[in-house]
Amino acid sequence: MSRTVLITGNSSGLGHGLTEVYLEKDWEVYGLSRRGVSDLTNIKLKDMRCDLTDFDMVPKILEKLLMGISHLDVVILNAGILGKVQDMVDTSLEDIQRVMDANVWSNKVLLDWLLRSGIRIDQIVLISSGAAINGNRGWGAYALSKATLNMLTQLYAHEFPHTHLTALAPGLVDTAMQDVLCDPSQVDEEQFPSVGKLRAARNTPAMPDPYQAGKLIADTIPGLKELPSGSFADIRTLNQH
Q1: Can you tell me where the transmembrane regions are (predicted)?
Q2: Which residues fall within 8 angstroms of residue 197, CB to CB, at 6 or more apart?
Q3: Considering the domain boundaries, does residue 23 fall inside one?
């Protein structure tokens, strides 16, 4: 019997890398993303387009995508956006709300549907970030959203008694987000010094591509069950041991 995984935000970046990895493992992959996956042809990929910030539409799409599914081995809630790198004083409530909708409230909608669906789920992994605890200048809305996501994970762990939940920081991954962060014309390193570390890591083993990062995450996920459900973990710390 095939193993099953649901991945959000799988049309690009880390989600796409994870999709490739799990298909190579011969898993059934169910994907939700704004653009859909057009470059992977595999009968084990069931993929639907969905704007995850359209909160009324998400449950309807999930009903179609997961019709007849009684068990998911893993759910990876990966979809998210960066927002603007800028000082908090320059960040409007509208900017913060847009990032929170994508990075937090969309996941609440997903978790609520999964909880009520009756589908048996072994593990849920919500993709967090070191930004959730670092508090570096300029990361404003993104950092707030990931810190909230960590608490969301902890709170829902009480409500999924038979499912293990983890908020997982995946480390540095070379995605389109890095195109923005590593572009001096878009982000001033003097004003926001933390991007210097990212720029130094790009094109080195410290910042793997999405497929390589996806392999590391897929290999790490089974061991997350050793942590208390609801925990936040950083993959770089886990793999030091």
Answers
A1: none
A2: none
A3: yes
Question: Look-up: residue for tokens 């993709």?
Answer: 127
Handedness of CA 49, 6, 151, 162 (dihedral sign): positive
pTM over cut 0.90:
yes
Residue 203 lies in a domain: no
Q: Are 83 and 143 in contact (CB under 8 A)?
A: no
List strand residue ranges (DSSP E) for the chain, in order: 4-8, 28-33, 45-49, 71-77, 120-127, 164-169, 231-234
The residue type at 142: Y
Q: Give tens-digit pLDDT for 195-236.
A: 888 899 888 998 999 999 999 999 999 999 999 999 999 999
Cβ contact 52:79 at 8 Å? yes
